[in-house]
Amino acid sequence: MRDRTVIGLTLGLGICAIGGYFVPDWFMNQMMFGFARALAIIGLLVLWRTGLVSFGHALYFGLGAYTVALMDINLGVTDAFVRLAGAMLVTGIIGVLLGYILRNYRDIFFAMLSLAFSMVLYGILVKTEALGSTDGFPVSAPTFMGAAPEGKYYLFVLICVVGWVSAVLVHSYLQSTLGRLTTAVRDNEIRVEYLGYSVARAIHIKYVISAVLTGAAGALTAMALGQVDPDSMVNWTASGELVFVTILSGPGSVAAPFIGSLIFELLRTYASEWAPHAWQMIVGGTLLAVIFFLPGGLWSIAARALRGRK
Amino acid sequence: METLITIVLDGLQYSSYLFIVSVGLTVIFGVMKILNVTHASFFTWGAYTAAFFIGKFSEMGWPDAFGFVIIFASAAVVGLVLGLLIERGLLRHMYERDEVLIVLATFGLFLMLEDLILLVFGVNPYFAYQPMALLESVEVGGITRDVYGLTLIGLAALVALACWYGQNRTKWGKLLIAVIYDREMSEAMGINVTVVYVVTFVIGAVLGALGGAYIAPTVSVTPGFGVDVIVLSFAVVVIGGMGSIPGALIGSILVGLLRALAVHKLPEIELFVVFAVMAIVLVFRPEGLFAPAKPRKI
């Protein structure tokens, strides 16, 4: 446990979980949505390091969210842990299946094919009355092992803990031999093959990891929001948003998504207050600015500051 | 029988519209290897400009037929201005970067242009029905159809013909093919690749804007209506083969007819079927049904 990232994450968890109790509700809400989405961003970060960008991860975000909603409506499942596990199971299965196909694709084809898969789900959802059509479903408040607490603090702590566990697991995965293959695959696939590793398998595993994490993010967001709908969760613009936050955060560290995602959430709140018609302009401008001037994302600023102090 | 005619006509009309929009996308991808998300902006800006001026001139008492002039003029102006701005201002700084990163940059620009529309034209919808009302309707096989919709098919055929002629029968087309196959080599042979890129991009932009401008009279032009079109034209382009003009033609006919069939027979699968076909094509023929053959370089 000497790893600086793990220490930092643990400190962050402690500060957030305790601090969340004292901060005003609106700020806790922001952290809740931000950290829930951060899970998906960690997943995309794993792919991004491999040189793959998915324009269709809203597929898993939506699957996770809709699994929660459908479990709630059809089976009456309200327990947050069961919901989360269900969503991760469903997205995991779909991820494994689609992974067999997607692992053979790179670059623009990978992006396009994942876009196609996510739009297939979107097409089904918006046209099917039984699945809520364009309106989606409401999601009832989660319970925790039978306890039905007032307010959202329990859910917030759950999100923080899930975030911590995922970040630490992904971090240690990236440190392992298989995890270190990410950059190697991006740089030269043929060499990796000659070293005796299967590139397709490595990509498949990363794809499933990202699918499950994004599913968890969708499930937690659905519970935090109390609502699922296709346009903000499954449409291709939702995938674009996830990719945007990934670029904004930067691939430098598993801690980056939490910071990037929270900043994105705050930005959105203030933008809709001060400049309601300029939100997309801000997002678009930021995306261009990051691509041109800050290829390492926000994390590269933090990393530079940390190095400077040492 | 009447349903069949309706389906075919609806389908062809929709295909024509898709073709005009996606041929620009595929040309830009073919030559420049850029998957250009701002294509949706060309489309939306073309539609808004046309709808705005058709309304204005009609208020001033100009004849409705002038609407057609406006449609083509807006497409040309929007395509020229936006195309030049985007290519010269942004994309030329990115040719050395990763393909996927360029997609993201155009995505960012697309978002900005979407909001700029709201700033310029406001949030209210525009209706520019005049050109459509002018042409009235006609009976085809016992079904009444708008003539305007049928002219769309003619326009698409014209665009297809012009593209074919341009690529196969002119000096420009030959240059284009050379650049597509080997950019460096053609540069060494004295082709001014920068000019080829700029011209290609502007042509693509004008076509995108034309799609928007021509469809404007048949719909209410509202904020965000380019969002759906761009993913559909992605589907068309991917199905036909990215960079292939005949591919875009076949892709749009396929998507248009399938969609019309779904709308009339099984509305639930309208969107699903398009992207399912896209996924299937990508799985079995990743380069698309009609992708141009790629030479192997050593």
List keywords for this structure.
heterodimer; A: 310 residues; mainly alpha; 14 helices; globular; B: 298 residues; ABC transporter involved in vitamin B12 uptake, BtuC; two-stranded antiparallel ribbon; two-stranded antiparallel sheet; 12 helices; 4 strands; 73% helix; 4% strand
Give a quick summary of the entry.
The complex is a heterodimer of chains A (310) and B (298). Chain A contains 14 helices and 2 strands, in the order αααααβααααβααααα.
Word description of this protein:
Chain A has 14 helices and two strands. Chain A has a two-stranded antiparallel ribbon. Chain A is mostly helical. Chain A has one domain (4-236). Chain B is mostly helical. Chain B has one domain (2-284): ABC transporter involved in vitamin B12 uptake, BtuC, CATH 1.10.3470. Chain B has twelve helices and four strands. In chain B, a hairpin with a 2-residue loop joins strand 2 (137-140) and strand 3 (143-146). In chain B, helix 2 packs across helix 10. The model of chain B has no long low-confidence stretch (mean pLDDT 84). The interface between A and B is large, with 40 and 43 residues.
Mean pLDDT of chain A: 85
- The pLDDT mean of chain B sits at 84
Helix content of chain B: over 70%
Category by helix and strand content of chain B: mainly alpha
The tally of helices of chain A reads: 14
Structural class by SSE content of chain A: mainly alpha
How widely separated are the two ends of chain A?
20 Å
Q: What is the domain total for the residues of chain B?
A: 1
What gross morphology of chain B would you assign?
A: globular
Strand content of chain A: under 5%
Rg of chain B, rounded, reads 19 Å
As a percent range, the share of strand residues of chain B is under 5%
Q: Would you count the extended β strands of chain B for me?
A: 4
**How many structural domains of chain A?**
1
